[in-house]
Amino acid sequence: MNKVQILSLIASAILFLGLYVGLDRRPPEKSSLDAEQGKEVNAFEWKTVLKEKKQALSKEQDELLENLENQTSEATNEAEKVLRLKNLSSFWYDNGSALLAGQYAGQAAQIENSDSTWSVTGATFFNALTTSQEELERNYCAGQAVNAFEEASKIDPDKAEHQVNIALVLAENPPPDNPMKAVLMLRELENKYPNEPSVYNALGRLAIKTGQWQKAVERLEKAWKLDNKNINTPCLLAMAYQGLGDNNKANEYAAICKNR
Questions:
Q1: For the chain, how many structural domains are there in total?
Q2: What is the pTM (predicted TM-score) of this model?
Q3: What is the percent of the chain with per-residue pLDDT over 70, rounded to a whole number?
Q4: Does any domain span residue 118?
Q5: Which of 45, 75, 148, 167 is the 20 to 30 A CA-CA neighbour of 255?
């Protein structure tokens, strides 16, 4: 397997955050990232995106969306409302707007209020963050992702993945006044959870991002040793070994990644 094939394979793999498909009656609490980038976050209007995306739909898509929206507004109980909101989230994700998918996933999470539905919301907004080039939109998505993962962490504070995910969001969109916040968070989590593979996956991913290939390999090999059933680790290891110039190892882990 050559370099282009390996990188193509890894690019198509889910490296860390899993997307699942899924209104606390109070307004959402302000996230830590909102506090740091509040003015820009508050200046972003997601309904403007909704209007623009609707205008780009085909007639068939528009009819399907109208039907889904009507079903949501006509829901007679919370369980049905959650289901309809998740359907709207899926519609927008399938039609190329992770931001709108996250918006409806978040509304479902506010009603259901489980760590899994909040994780869905955070993961979906993280996806939107990684694909956006607009600063206001990126800050909005980052703020919503952090808020969602914070809500998930409140419900299950012992689950390290929620805190790791917050760090990954901050690594993707660093606070201007604290660009090392993600790294510091992960180091604290490493001390707190020395046997948690998700922490080492995240540290490895950051090392890849900065071209520190040897560090990436060391951290990811530790994650793999702790959990050799994780679907993300071999994909990251393939990339790390490719960067290090070890094609044999890169091919070995790329094959595992492909077959997961």
A1: 2
A2: 0.83
A3: 84
A4: yes
A5: 167
